[in-house]
Write a structure and sequence with these properties.
Length: 137
């Protein structure tokens, strides 16, 4: 019985990893619902404010945040403080994605490549990220 559960868990994890690797696959219910919510202005503004507040508090307390949020925080740290919420709202609404070309998307994906070893870290030849925060293990 335990072996069947382990196999089912492995298959589910493989499906999740496969879906993340291929952006052309159809979205699941949660992703579709999130995108619909982000089309509503007040919901998008509320989410952006709360997310920025969470990132600021985590940085002040020295907490480790998930990889995707650490990348977002690094990106937003390069934007002037007064424009961060506007940039985050634009990215949540999909406005920025519509303007990005294929070359920029490929360059961004190359920048985020990680080592395949247990120690983690960036692949060789990549410049270090200034102000990088600790990643969860």
């Amino acid at each position: 019985m335990a072996r069947l559960r382990a196999d089912a868990a492995k298959r589910a994890a493989d499906k999740v990893a496969e879906r993340r690797a291929d952006p052309d696959k159809p979205l699941n219910r949660r992703q579709r619902l999130f995108r619909r919510f982000m089309q509503v202005g007040p919901m998008r503004r509320l989410y952006a404010r709360r997310l920025l507040r969470y990132l600021d508090k985590s940085r002040a307390k020295g907490r480790v945040i998930p990889n995707q949020l650490a990348d977002l925080d690094d990106y937003l740290s390069r934007v002037p403080v007064k424009q961060r919420r506007d940039v985050l709202e634009a990215s949540l609404s999909g406005e920025l994605e519509a303007n990005v070309g294929r070359d920029l998307r490929r360059a961004a994906s190359r920048q985020n490549r990680q080592k395949g070893r247990p120690g983690g870290g960036q692949r060789p030849g990549m410049p270090p990220i200034p102000g990088a925060r600790p990643r969860p293990q």
